[in-house]
Task: inverse folding
């Protein structure tokens, strides 16, 4: 099994290499270039100078060669939109909000989702069950940006309780984090609640639970020690992919709440044809996803001994 | 097999996770004989009918589909008809859902929007299915090398951040001939479809691999059935039920993705309406009135729930063992 | 010889506006506009920087204590740089104008040139314009200092002005905009990749941009030009400190080094957090004019007008631009209305048409489409009165603008039908394409135009795309139309009329309008120093444009901003950049509240 994971780990390298290759090719297929949007006809000569400075007039495969050369030395290249700045510098500052948002949202979605799921299962077919399932379903059926719009109007514009835009570190000043986290986290929370509830119900019908009950253990002990613990296994393995999804899928929320994170940088980069920035963000995200996948598979092996990798 | 299981559960944004998970949760229906198979399908249908939420979801989807197809007959006005001087009006007798920033009737646009939103949801599934059958089926049946290459390909596509990859593809396709048809709708179809097939391809491969070793396939091989016949007659139909469920969950997921593209301004083009770009346009008026956002968002939510209910129902009906 | 311009960013706005790393000339909507009430919002100070007082003098009586002198405004986008020679967008200029002094500034009320770093504006009368009409002497104020305490001299201006011709620095921005300095045309022809480029640029300009002594500058124009001195209000002609520029190298002006930037204006940068905000604080060494009352100005980078307005209402901003759709509600609410400030900008909105492709290559068709465009309906229904319907491509306040010359283009369906029938007697009018960026207001404009043009039998195909593609499509003759406009850099009409001459084609003139007769008129009017004769030429020029229009003009820019009631001392100027009153920020203070 160690061998398997070692192979998987090594396999990450060609995957990421192919990601760079595909992204590089695709983005050069996009019409227009980074110096197209600039204005002023008089700068035609200057634009040409910039184009040759960044090798944009050379064949794409050559440009790819230059790029990979720099990349292998850890240099993500210059920022073509903010000339003088480097991608390393910009990403160095914008990874934090994205990661903080991702972590906080994962926590929110897990806690709310698991709590609602357990509640619904334990009080099956009660009002509580319907309420929590209903809440979860509604949370999931509203796109996060619509939820964001509603929350901002209510809590920022009307009630003045929370800020409408911005980000701090999410901990020392928690207020700016509340609305983005709820907007982004409600869909995964609903999903976790669904899975938790289903898993709980399945475990509750298992023989060992009946045995425990027959032994006369108190219901609370049975629920906590036998049911919840076992029911959490499939839920826990989900949290990995969900957090990867949240880290890489938060750009609309970043955009909507003007959070200075990577997702926003990516969309701006694509529309501004800022090639090095597109490459860097894609590669960064791909790395997160690939590693998250690997961790999930590892987790599987840990929690479910029946799974054997070869 | 174990490896497939692990891979199938691996990441992607939550909505997409829901799809693969739901599908992965389905075990194979045991359809050995064709005669019994028909009975099994009709059994499944009966089970589905007993699920009230699923039936409700189905009915709503049917109604929306009818509205979409017969939009010109049902909608009170044209989707691009402009009522000068009636800008962002609240709901009234002449405009039941109010009007938008351009002075267009929101109800009519919601109805016409069903065409494009549901259209995206459904057509994207065809693209996904097409790619997934080729890749997943090819991997399962094409021998060791085909399997290795195709599965590594899915690994690579899998490593891309979904939504961002869709945006990149959208930008690439927007420069092609494709963009000149139906307001760029095809660009959206392909951008989403070319990214979202991975889970289904893995599902199909897994199903087919396990079917390969089932008794009836071995039996069919023994009596000399051609490979093509085995695939078409036995393996494809038996892969169908989990695929149907996956596609059902995939529809609202694609609709949401499209709405997100529209919300950041790169979905289908005006004056065409879809619920996503209606929300985006409505956001431009949000400081004045919530109605232009409310109605398309409601349509989106109802659609999402309906497909969710129907998908749940289908899964339960097609595989009675999971509950 | 002619051409100078650089479009100001009229863009504002919406979701996509942010995504669009927009071309300077506004592609999107400007949600900040106005109706002509260029009134000073407060009663304070009144000293413009040009007035030369070096201390705040009598502070306003209602001023709040220093620890409350913090203003939070929105720049609507993050600057790419604050290097004066590389800034180009209004969201860069709004900050840059606080950081670096120019030789001259413009009076907020009269739009006349005022002295800033200069001691006075050269005129023939004061002898600073020589008899040859091309040699200018500019004396600097005494004791000007950099924010690091060192002296600011004429040599620093020479360095800055010549640096503006280094296209490796200014190529994406105003580089090449100022061609009226003697030798500029030669400098602009040099190859920026050559090893001796910098030296060659200097050689080209060494006799026309000269430091006579520490406090005296000599500037030589290529030929007599009305607009010559106005160019020295532009950031590209600011002094920059050579040792600072060389120390930072390629990083000069970007966020990572901004807080160490040596500045000459009333403010300096305290911090710059990418994608979020930057903070400027007073430059204690500033002696170029009145010192600011504010102790700190936070400049946020919120692109979307709705988000900004939300943040304003939630108390996160002291100032906000206004989403178009919010305007009727604000006007109807007296409390909110009191917070709104409006001014007329020196900016117009039009649709550039590609006059080289059908059907726009037929001037009767273009005239007909002008007549088919109901500008009042657009101003009311699309912009809710945040823009003013306007038929002439010049705003009233532009010198010698003659709106009457364009009366033939006014909305009139019958005339429109006649003009279009003249262009296409058989009625086979090709479908026109309207390419727009994808934001709700611009789309509303596009759908409204589509409906209006339908009435004269013209079918319109609306295509939404991003700014980069749009510009590329225009250049490749694929689009045919571009919703844009012109925000004037300075008050001299040359800044406006040169857009339509041949040398602007491909840059600011994406309609490929090229008419020999027009080119001639345009260069004559700039060279004609006699006001009466110039007016006559300008009238001919406008008559020419009315008979063969290069654009479909539809509105005047109005800037409308919300300010919290405690923000006082706002002095508006038609040359404000992003926010009402930002050209004269030194006057602004926070009142007791």
Result:
């Amino acid at each position: 099994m160690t061998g398997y994971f070692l192979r998987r780990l090594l396999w990450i390298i060609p995957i990421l290499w192919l990601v760079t290759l595909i992204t590089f090719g695709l983005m050069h297929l996009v019409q227009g270039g980074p110096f197209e949007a600039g204005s002023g006809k008089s700068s035609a000569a200057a634009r040409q100078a910039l184009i040759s400075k960044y090798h944009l007039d050379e064949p794409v495969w050559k440009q790819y060669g230059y790029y990979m050369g720099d990349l292998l030395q850890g240099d993500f290249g210059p920022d073509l939109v903010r000339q003088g700045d480097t991608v390393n510098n910009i990403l160095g500052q914008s990874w934090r909000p994205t990661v903080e948002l991702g972590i906080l949202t994962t926590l929110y979605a897990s806690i709310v989702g698991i709590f609602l799921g357990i509640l619904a299962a334990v009080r099956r077919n009660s009002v509580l069950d319907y309420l929590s399932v209903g809440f979860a379903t509604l949370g999931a059926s509203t796109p996060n940006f619509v939820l964001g719009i509603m929350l901002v109007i209510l809590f920022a514009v009307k009630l003045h309780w929370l800020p409408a835009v911005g980000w701090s570190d999410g901990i020392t000043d928690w207020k700016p984090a509340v609305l983005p986290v709820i907007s982004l986290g409600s869909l995964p929370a609903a999903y976790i609640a669904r899975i938790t509830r289903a898993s709980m119900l399945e475990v509750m019908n298992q023989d060992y639970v009946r045995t425990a009950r027959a032994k006369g253990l108190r219901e609370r002990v049975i629920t906590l020690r036998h049911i919840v613990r076992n029911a959490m296994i499939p839920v826990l393995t989900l949290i990995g992919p969900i957090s990867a999804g949240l880290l890489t899928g938060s750009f609309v929320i970043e955009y909507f709440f003007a959070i200075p994170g990577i997702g926003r940088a990516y969309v701006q980069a694509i529309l501004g044809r800022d090639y090095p920035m597109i490459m860097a963000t894609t590669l960064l995200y791909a790395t997160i996803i690939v590693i998250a996948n690997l961790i999930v598979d590892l987790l599987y092996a840990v929690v479910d001994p029946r799974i054997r990798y070869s | 097999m174990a490896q497939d299981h692990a891979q199938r559960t691996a990441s992607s944004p939550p909505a997409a996770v829901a799809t693969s998970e739901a599908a992965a949760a389905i075990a194979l229906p045991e359809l050995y004989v064709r005669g019994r198979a028909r009975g099994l399908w009709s059994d499944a249908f009966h089970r589905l009918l007993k699920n009230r939420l699923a039936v409700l979801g189905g009915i709503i989807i049917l109604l929306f589909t009818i509205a979409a197809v017969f939009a010109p007959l049902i909608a009170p006005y044209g989707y691009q008809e402009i009522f000068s001087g009636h800008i962002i009006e609240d709901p009234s007798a002449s405009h039941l859902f109010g009007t938008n920033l351009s002075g267009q009737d929101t109800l009519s646009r919601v109805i016409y929007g069903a065409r494009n939103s549901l259209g995206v949801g459904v057509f994207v599934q065809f693209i996904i299915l097409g790619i997934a059958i080729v890749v997943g089926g090819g991997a399962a049946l094409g021998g060791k090398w085909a399997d290795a290459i195709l599965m590594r390909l899915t690994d690579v596509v899998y490593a891309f951040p979904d939504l961002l990859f869709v945006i990149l593809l959208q930008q690439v396709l927007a420069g092609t001939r494709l963009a000149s048809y139906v307001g760029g709708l095809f660009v959206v179809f392909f951008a989403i479809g070319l990214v979202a097939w991975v889970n289904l391809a893995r599902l199909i491969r897994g199903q087919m691999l396990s079917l390969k070793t089932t008794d009836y396939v071995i039996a069919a091989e023994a009596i000399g059935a051609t490979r093509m016949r085995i695939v078409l007659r036995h393996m494809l139909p038996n892969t169908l039920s989990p695929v149907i469920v996956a596609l059902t969950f995939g529809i609202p997921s694609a609709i949401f993705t499209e709405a997100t593209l529209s919300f950041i301004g790169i979905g289908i083009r005006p004056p065409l309406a879809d619920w996503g770009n209606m929300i985006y346009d409505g956001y431009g008026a949000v400081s004045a009135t919530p109605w232009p956002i409310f109605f398309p968002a409601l349509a989106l939510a109802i659609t999402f729930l309906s497909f969710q209910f129907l998908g749940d129902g289908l899964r339960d009906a097609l595989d009675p063992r999971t509950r | 010889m002619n051409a100078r311009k650089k479009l100001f960013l009229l863009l504002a706005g919406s979701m996509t506006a942010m995504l669009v790393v927009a071309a300077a000339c506004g592609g999107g909507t400007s949600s900040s506009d106005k109706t002509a009430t260029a009134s000073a919002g407060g009663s304070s100070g009144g000293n413009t920087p040009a007035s030369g007082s070096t201390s705040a003098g009598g502070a306003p009586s209602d001023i709040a204590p220093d620890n409350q002198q913090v203003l939070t405004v929105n720049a609507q986008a993050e600057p790419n740089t604050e290097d004066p020679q590389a800034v180009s967008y209004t969201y860069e200029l709004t900050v840059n104008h606080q950081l670096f002094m120019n030789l001259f500034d413009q009076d907020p009320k009269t739009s006349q040139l005022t002295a800033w770093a200069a001691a006075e504006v050269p005129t023939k009368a004061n002898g600073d314009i020589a008899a040859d009409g091309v040699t200018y002497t500019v004396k600097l104020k005494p004791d000007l200092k950099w924010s690091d305490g060192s002296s600011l001299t004429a040599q620093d201006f020479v360095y800055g002005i010549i640096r503006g011709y280094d296209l490796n620095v200014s190529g994406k921005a105003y580089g090449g905009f100022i061609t009226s300095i003697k030798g500029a045309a030669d400098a602009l022809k040099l190859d920026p990749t050559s090893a001796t480029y910098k030296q060659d640029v200097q050689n080209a300009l060494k006799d026309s941009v000269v430091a006579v002594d520490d406090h005296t500058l000599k500037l030589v124009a290529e030929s007599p030009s009305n607009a010559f001195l106005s160019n020295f209000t532009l950031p590209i002609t600011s002094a920059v400190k050579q040792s600072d520029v060389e120390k930072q190298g390629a990083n000069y002006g970007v966020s990572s080094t901004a807080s160490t930037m040596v500045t000459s204006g009333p403010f300096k940068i305290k911090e710059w957090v990418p994608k979020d905000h930057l903070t400027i604080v007073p430059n204690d060494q500033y002696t170029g004019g009145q010192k600011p009352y504010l102790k700190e100005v936070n400049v946020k980078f919120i692109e979307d007008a709705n988000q900004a307005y939300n943040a304003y209402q939630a108390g996160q901003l002291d100032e906000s631009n206004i989403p178009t759709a919010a305007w009727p509600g604000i006007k109807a609410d007296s409390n909110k209305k009191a917070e709104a400030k409006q001014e007329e900008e020196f900016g117009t909105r039009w649709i550039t048409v590609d006059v080289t492709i059908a059907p726009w290559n037929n001037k009767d068709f273009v005239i007909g489409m002008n007549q088919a465009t109901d500008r009042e309906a657009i101003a009311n229904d699309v912009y809710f009165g945040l823009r003013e319907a306007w038929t002439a491509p010049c705003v009233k306040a532009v010198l010698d603008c003659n709106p009457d010359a364009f009366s033939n283009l006014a909305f009139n369906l019958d005339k429109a039908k006649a003009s279009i029938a003249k262009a296409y007697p058989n009625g086979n009018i090709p479908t026109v394409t309207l390419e727009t960026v994808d934001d709700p207001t611009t789309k509303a404009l596009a759908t409204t135009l589509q409906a209006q043009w339908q009435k004269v039998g013209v079918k319109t195909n609306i295509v939404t795309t991003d700014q980069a593609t749009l510009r590329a499509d225009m250049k490749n003759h694929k689009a045919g139309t571009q919703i844009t406009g012109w925000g004037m850099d300075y008050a001299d009409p040359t800044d406006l009329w040169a857009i339509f001459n041949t040398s602007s084609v491909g840059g600011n003139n994406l309609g490929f309008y090229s008419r020999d007769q027009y080119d001639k008129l345009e260069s004559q009017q700039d060279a004609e120093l006699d006001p009466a004769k110039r007016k006559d030429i300008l009238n001919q020029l406008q008559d020419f444009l009315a008979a063969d229009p290069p654009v479909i003009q539809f509105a005047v820019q109005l800037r409308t901003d919300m300010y919290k009631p405690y923000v006082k001392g706002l002095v508006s100027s038609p040359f404000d950049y992003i926010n009402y009153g930002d050209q004269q920020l030194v006057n602004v203070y926070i009142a007791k509240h």
Q: What stands out?
A: Confidence is low (pLDDT under 50) at residues 1-36 of chain B. Residues 47 and 317 of chain B are 5 Å apart (CA to CA). The first helix of chain B runs from residue 2 to 8.
